[in-house]
Amino acid sequence: MKSSQPTMKDVAKEAGVALGTVSKVFNGIAVGESYRVKVEAAAQKLGYQVNQYARGMRASKTYTVALILPGVDHPFFSALAQHICSALLQRDYRMLLYVTASRPDVEQQCIQMVQQNRVDGIIGLTYNALEVDESLPFVSIDRFFSPNVPCVTSDNYGGGRMAAEKLLELGCRHPVFLRTGSANSSETDKRGNGFKALCQSRKIPFDALELDDGQDFGLFREFFLSHRTHDGKLDIDGIFCSTDLLACQILTLLNEMGVRIPEDVQVIGFDGIRHYGTGTPYCSTIIQPVKKIAQTCVDFLLTKDRSNIPALICLPVTYAAGGTTLEPVGGD
Amino acid sequence: MKSSQPTMKDVAKEAGVALGTVSKVFNGIAVGESYRVKVEAAAQKLGYQVNQYARGMRASKTYTVALILPGVDHPFFSALAQHICSALLQRDYRMLLYVTASRPDVEQQCIQMVQQNRVDGIIGLTYNALEVDESLPFVSIDRFFSPNVPCVTSDNYGGGRMAAEKLLELGCRHPVFLRTGSANSSETDKRGNGFKALCQSRKIPFDALELDDGQDFGLFREFFLSHRTHDGKLDIDGIFCSTDLLACQILTLLNEMGVRIPEDVQVIGFDGIRHYGTGTPYCSTIIQPVKKIAQTCVDFLLTKDRSNIPALICLPVTYAAGGTTLEPVGGD
DNA sequence: TTGTAAGCGTTATCAC
DNA sequence: GTGATAACGCTTACAA
Asked: Which of A88, A107, A256, B30 has the highest CB neighbour number within 10 Å of its CB?
């Protein structure tokens, strides 16, 4: 009359063997052939399933990893979540997902819940500093915490350089860098650094307007207005945006202002996200290797030997035309 | 020299009280004030965190819910995941996310993992029948399994009617229903039913082309070609697509064919997804109440009294113009 | 009220 | 190779 799920004890009784034997069978430890068969038959018959909680408690290994993300509605984040989940499932790990809406209090609540659940590790993309037990394997995305915490990110600096180089190559003489985002510094800030560095090395003067999330988006409009020349055109001809999303908003803005893209101004974003459905790129962009990032996070997190993991892993990015630069789409 | 996290035993020793007392404090069971203070101080000092696994094993309550989705890259799914996650977090539940890519084998693997983890319940949107322990609370999205499993979905039938009504109201005389999707039947099939029912009740002849996922998308093109009249125009003037995504693809197709939207043909989709970033709708559409769906799933799943939960819950949908019908966008 | 002790389902250590 | 038995960290009767 047991209403709940069968346990190893039940299996042992059914098979007529000792409890320990059943455990061994399920852990792949050598056991007499005849016993193994009996145990497996009994387990099959009872529909037995290992209880991961009990196992985890004993072995302090839970085969569960926590993924902490600001949200899952951004195409980049959702791709990340999906790939990480698949990579984990392949290795027989489960994934606890926490969405934080970038709120520090929620982020901290998540960390607490994670610790209560004794996960085997955490993969986190958070905008705020986290207080996490040093003993818990932790891999950070896009944000460097400390040398003990490997940070997986794209080659943001290289991507920034690439964008600048591309704009110059396509004839831009007055490039501009635009950004919005968290005020907290992260690896993604290097996108602008790379862009500026290349411009400087080529002795090309550039402009930049870098906003934080709280600031008025209208400042971008003002920026453009202040760059209007007497003939109504803009004196800038190339824009690198820190994200595709920003590029998208800037494109809308320029459109309203009657600026032609890409004839008057060429725009390059960063991320490589695409419209769901049509698969159309949002803009010409530097593509992040999302799947590779996901795979790398999982690999590092589950590596046995955590002694010689690099502190920062920058994965290579690629450029793809997306209609907002003077070149055929998909070209290059 | 304990390297791992502190346990209740440690807290008890530190506070100089019995183990049971510590447990009571953390479970909100009445305990002498002086004891409570001592325990809390000790816990604070040691940085103690309840071990949910141990607790779950004993109480067979894990405060964890599994969400099984085909993927998280579709805007509707990701919104669902996000809202469900938030709703659960608010109630102090964690969420295990499984993505199945709609593959029956992965779906079954997930179910197995879920059972091993003794979750408190499952919310699932799956295309294939699942063998899940009847004793485990289960809420299905968009797919009816059995009267014991509540199914949460939109008012698909009503939405279909609404779409038809709208097209007719906007002057369409030759409406068409188009669908693609899983061959397995689900609640979403009622979208077409509602559409057809309304057309019939109004005595308006309609056409329909209903494909399954495996089938050649080119059939849609052929369908349109066969509906060309001698003057090169189409003899259909209104299309209801089973999803926004399909609508999006159909729009691309019609565009290639030189058909003007919405002048020649008006199109209505179903879902209410929007381009990330601009927030632009994909098309005129029937909007699903995603957040409400998420909340409802969580509510039903965590309801104590599971005896009188309805077997099918259809949440109300709304219509919104999105540029592919003859009316101002955002209007009605 | 507080402390004690028996379990929850596993795994791991031993004698056999 | 097999089978008792003691943990793992916690909850919960029950005894003090």
From this structure: A88
B279 CB within 8 Å of a chain A CB: no
Partner-chain contact A115 B49, CB within 8 Å: yes
Minimum-distance CB partner of A275 among B5, B50, B275: B275
Q: Are residues A150 and A109 in the same domain?
A: yes
- Do B161 and B150 fall into the same domain? no
Note whether B277 contacts A: Cβ–Cβ < 8 A. yes
Residue B298 lies in a domain: yes
Query: Count of H helices and E strands in chain B?
Result: 11, 12
* Chain B residue with Cα closest to A81: B72
Which residues in 3-62 of chain B line strand D, with CB less than 7 A from it? 4, 7-9, 19-20, 23-24, 26-27, 50-51, 54-55, 57-59
State how far the alpha carbon of A319 is from the alpha carbons of A55, A74, A161, A269, A332, in Å.
Answer: 47, 20, 11, 10, 8
Domains: count for chain A? 3
Whether B90 is covered by a domain: the verdict is yes
Which CATH number fits the domain that encloses residue A229?
A: 3.40.50.2300
Let me know if residue A325 belongs to a domain: no
Q: Are residues A148 and A296 part of one domain? A: yes
Q: Domain check: are B148 and B194 in the same one?
A: no
- Shortest distance between the Cα of A167 and any Cα of chain B, in A, equals 23
> Quick check: B332 pLDDT over 60?
no
The model's pLDDT over B235-281, given as tens digits with 9 standing for 90+, comes to: 999 999 999 999 999 999 999 999 999 999 999 999 999 988 888 89
Same domain membership, residue A295 and residue A150? yes
Q: How far is A32 from chain B (nearest CA, A)?
A: 26
Residues B216, B275, single domain; the answer is yes
Range of the domain at A44: 8-50
Q: Which residue is nearest to nucleotide C3 (CA to C1')?
A: B18
For the CA of A20 and the C1' of D3, the distance in angstroms is 7
Per-residue pLDDT reduced to its tens digit, B135-147: 789 999 999 998 9
> Between A and B, how many residue pairs show a Cβ–Cβ distance under 8 A?
144
Enumerate long-range contacts of B87-90, CB under 8 Å, 24 or more apart: B87/B294, B87/B295, B87/B298, B88/B298, B89/A98, B89/A99, B89/A106, B89/A109, B89/A110
- pLDDT tens sequence for chain A (332 residues): 345 788 999 999 999 999 999 999 998 888 888 999 999 999 999 999 999 989 888 888 899 999 999 999 999 999 999 999 999 999 999 999 999 998 989 998 898 899 898 899 999 999 877 777 777 899 999 999 989 899 999 999 999 999 999 999 999 999 999 999 999 999 999 999 999 999 999 999 999 999 999 999 999 999 999 999 988 889 999 999 999 999 999 999 999 999 999 999 999 999 999 998 888 999 999 999 999 999 999 999 999 888 888 999 999 999 999 999 998 876 44
Q: Determine whether the distance from the CB of A183 to the nearest atom of strand C is below 7 Å.
A: no
> Across residues B201-214, what is the average pLDDT?
96
Regarding whether A264 and A180 lie in a shared domain, the answer is: yes
CA distance B181 to B200: 24
Any B CB within 8 A of A62 CB: yes
Do residues B270 and B175 both lie within one domain? yes
From the list B71, B116, B252, the residue facing A50 with the nearest CB is: B116
B59 domain-assigned? no
